[in-house]
Amino acid sequence: METFQKKAIAFFDVDGTLLSSTIVHCYLWLRTSSMFSIQKLFWIIGFLPKIVYYLILDKISRVRFNQVFYRNYRGMDATQVKTLASDMFANYLSQKIFPEAISQIEEHKAQGDYVVLLTGSLDFIVRPIAEHFGVDAVLAAKLSEHAGKFTGELTTEPLIGEQKAIAMKKFAKQAGISLDVCYAYSDSKSDLPMLDCVGNPIAVNPSKALRKLALETDWEIHEWMKAT
Question: How far apart, in whole angstroms, are the C-alpha atoms of residue 214 and residue 11?
């Protein structure tokens, strides 16, 4: 790392912060993109009961939700899915990006800051997003592979909650930059450890719980609108 060239680090959550999508939306797109319309309809109808379960699980533990949800990838061809991820960005995710996210990242670049995407989303999904924004680094979840197929298990603990703060501290230490001068952007209270460990926390389109906390602690709140 060329630490002498950088002043601070701007850490950005991805889903709900840079763009209006979730890990569920991405899986549904990847899973059904090659299906005919009627086939896709019946598949989604069959998947709906799982959605209710996942919503409940997410309320109980986002870490556990990620671990369980990513098992849906078990048995899927890794190379094929990674190729599809590029198509998904071009045909779906690129349209979900908040325009203000682009200008905010460009502002940090102009200031001479590192720009880092920090997310519980899968690395191959985030890679085209990172390339689009031209960021310096990506810290993302990874699925293990065996015989060319995903096992459905993550290679590490889900990059959620305290794990994000740990990753940030490690990155900042390697860069030789104090977290006191760094920035963190997120939309969810589950990222409280991420926001808490920097000197400049910013709540983006915050959930009700995060908005309440941000107002109580006088954190910056940004309202980023979808592209029309």
Answer: 17
pLDDT recorded at residue 226: 78
What stretches in the chain show pLDDT beneath 50? 1-4
Which residues on neighbouring strands pair with residue 183, listed in sequence order? Answer: 10, 200
| Its pTM surpasses 0.85 | yes
Helix (H) / strand (E) element for 151: namely strand 149-154
Residue 152: φ, ψ to 5°: 90, 0
Q: Is 170 helix (H, G, I), strand (E, B) or coil?
A: helix
CA-wise closest residue to 47 among 14, 130, 39: 39
Q: 138: which strand partners?
A: 117
Q: How confident is the model at residue 2, as a pLDDT?
A: 47
Say how many Å lie between the first and final Cα of the chain, rounded: 38
Query: Taking a C-beta distance cutoff of 8 angstroms, is the pair 189, 207 a contact?
Result: yes
CA distances to 40, 87, 192 from 117, in Å: 32, 20, 16
